[in-house]
Specification:
Layout (H helix, E strand, L loop, with lengths): L1 H24 L43 H21 L2 H4 L4 H4 L11 H13 L1 H6 L4 H27 L4 H6 L2 H21 L3 H28 L34 H16 L4 H20 L5 H19 L5
Helix pairs in contact: 1-9, 5-10, 7-13, 9-10, 9-11, 10-11, 10-13, 11-12, 11-13, 12-13
Length: 332
């Protein structure tokens, strides 16, 4: 049995290494690359025909300059009208204007020197978010997460005891133990940083820095909330115990035997997955792999009796929010 798990562990590490290598080789999407010329909008008054790119002309250039002066004025009006229509129908790429998809995801500057200031800015935005929500901002998303978490909390006493009684997930729990999944989460940003440094690949290194920033932001938030709510873990309760009154009962120090809400593994996994999915969104397989692995890690916290389903759901939602709306958006 031990040899089988050793082989499985080696295989998992090999697959992880290949995934990090493929992600490192895939170029992140940089919507507004500073090396490209700045986009220019179409002029208010249409330029002369000689200044219009040939591909935008509705007819050959040699026919656009009449010699007769009387016909020139009428032709000029018709020309301007036709070109305004042409500009209004042209694709953004033809005019040098970024498309809406390119305009999304303009991220802050990130580097080793900016990592600490960015982290402090992130934490401020995260902890004052409830005040913004109270003012009515993002109320739909907040309402959905709160309602989903409340429903799962109500169901926790009914679904959680099952995972303490069954042995169906014994092998799964060994493979996705808390130690293994914690190491896995740490390997992702570290692997991207090393790959970017080794290949002198600035976009990949930037992705690694953003992933590290998101992971640290998420874990700090999780630890803060756990020490406030002090919710018992399912493993602290017997299978026939009270799974309803679990809040403010956990004992221990700040980092020892603290509460279970939200799941630190889930918030970290979905924080990393959101960074990878956003940075490599032109490669759809990255999103599938990232969120699939994050979901597997989150589920393992339930089968291990380390967290309630509501802890995992809240952690996943917070991890996505921290990465997608704080880390990747910067000061925008």
């Amino acid at each position: 049995m031990g040899g089988g798990w050793c082989r499985a562990g080696l295989l998992t590490l090999c697959l992880l290494g290949q995934t990090v290598r493929l992600i490192g080789e895939a170029q992140p999407l940089t919507p507004l690359d500073s090396t490209k010329p700045e986009a220019s909008a179409p002029p208010a008054d249409v330029a002369p025909a000689q200044q219009i790119p040939r591909q935008l002309l509705p007819f050959p250039r040699e026919f656009v300059t009449p010699k007769d002066s009387s016909s020139t004025r009428s032709f000029s009006s018709a020309w301007q009208a036709s070109q305004k229509l042409r500009f209004s129908l042209a694709e953004p790429a033809e005019l040098g204007v970024p498309s809406p998809a390119q305009q999304v995801g303009q991220e802050r500057e990130v580097s080793w020197k900016l990592l600490a200031p960015n982290f402090l800015h992130d934490q401020k935005r995260i902890w004052v978010f409830p005040l913004r929500a109270a003012e009515g901002k993002h109320w739909r998303a907040v309402l959905g997460v709160v309602a989903g978490t409340a429903a799962l909390v109500a169901l926790d006493p009914h679904d959680t005891p099952y995972f303490g009684r069954t042995s169906a997930f014994h092998d799964f729990n060994k493979a996705f133990s808390g130690l293994n999944t914690g190491i896995l989460e740490g390997v992702v940003p570290l692997g991207l940083l090393l790959a970017g440094e080794a290949r002198k690949d600035s976009p990949t290194e930037k992705t690694g820095l953003l992933a590290a920033e998101a992971w640290v932001d998420a874990e700090v938030v999780a630890e803060g909330m756990k020490n406030i709510d002090r919710r018992l873990r399912p493993s602290d309760i017997s299978t026939d115990g009270d799974f309803t009154h679990t809040w403010f009962k956990a004992r221990g120090g700040i980092l020892i035997s603290r509460g279970s809400f939200p799941s630190g593994h889930a918030i970290g996994a979905f924080g990393l997955a959101s960074v990878l999915a956003e940075r490599y969104r032109q490669h759809r397989w990255v999103s599938w792999v990232a969120y699939g692995l994050a979901g597997t890690i989150a589920f393992s916290r339930v089968t291990l009796q380390a967290h309630f389903p509501s802890d995992v759901f809240a952690g996943a939602a917070l991890g996505y929010f921290i990465s997608h709306d704080v880390v990747l958006r910067g000061r925008n």
